[in-house]
Design a protein that fits this description.
Length: 180
């Protein structure tokens, strides 16, 4: 039994040695292949991550450029809107000033119209009075001419009467002389 204790472990050691030798003979190469595979996986992973980072950086740059362009477009739009708003305010203010100016001008012209209407009314009244005076003067002239003619007739009658009386007096004086 004593031998069994030595032989069995020795046989087990030989079997283990065979396995170990078989295992150790290809182990360094297998470990090198494993390490190389893991290294390749790591490198591939790093390359993939680097490409991913590069793509992310490019995407970030594109996004940044797009945002920058959008900001410029927004700023331009805001500027144009501000200019349009200011132009509208200026136009509103100008139209208000024009409205005020025109209202003042309308008030002034209405006052001038009122003054001119009064002047026209006075002129019309003066014209009416002048026509009435003209009509009166024409009538007066006709009356005066009629009076002149009547006075001329009266004067002629008086002259005729004076001549007749002077002739009658001369005839009476001649008759009185002839009677004497």
């Amino acid at each position: 039994m004593n031998k069994a204790y030595v032989i069995a472990p020795f046989l087990a050691l030989l079997i283990f040695g065979g396995f170990y030798w078989n295992f150790s003979k290809g182990y360094a190469e297998r470990e090198a292949v494993k390490v190389a595979a893991q290294k390749k996986i790591k490198e591939d992973k790093l390359k993939e991550e680097a490409e991913g980072r590069k793509a992310a950086v490019e995407a970030a740059i594109r996004l940044q450029e797009q945002r920058k362009k959008e900001k410029l477009d927004k700023d331009e739009k805001d500027r144009l809107e501000k200019e349009a708003r200011q132009a509208a305010i200026d136009a509103r203010d100008k139209s208000y000033r024009d409205k005020e100016k025109l209202e003042k001008q309308v008030d002034r012209l209405n006052k001038e119209i009122a003054v001119e209407k009064e002047a026209v009314a006075k002129i019309e009244e003066t014209k009416k009075l002048s026509r009435e005076e003209e009509a009166f003067l024409k009538q007066f002239v006709k009356s005066a001419e009629t009076n002149v003619k009547e006075l001329a007739n009266v004067i002629e009658k008086i002259d005729a009467a004076d001549k007749a009386r002077a002739a009658a007096e001369a005839a009476a004086a001649a008759a009185a002389k002839a009677k004497s």
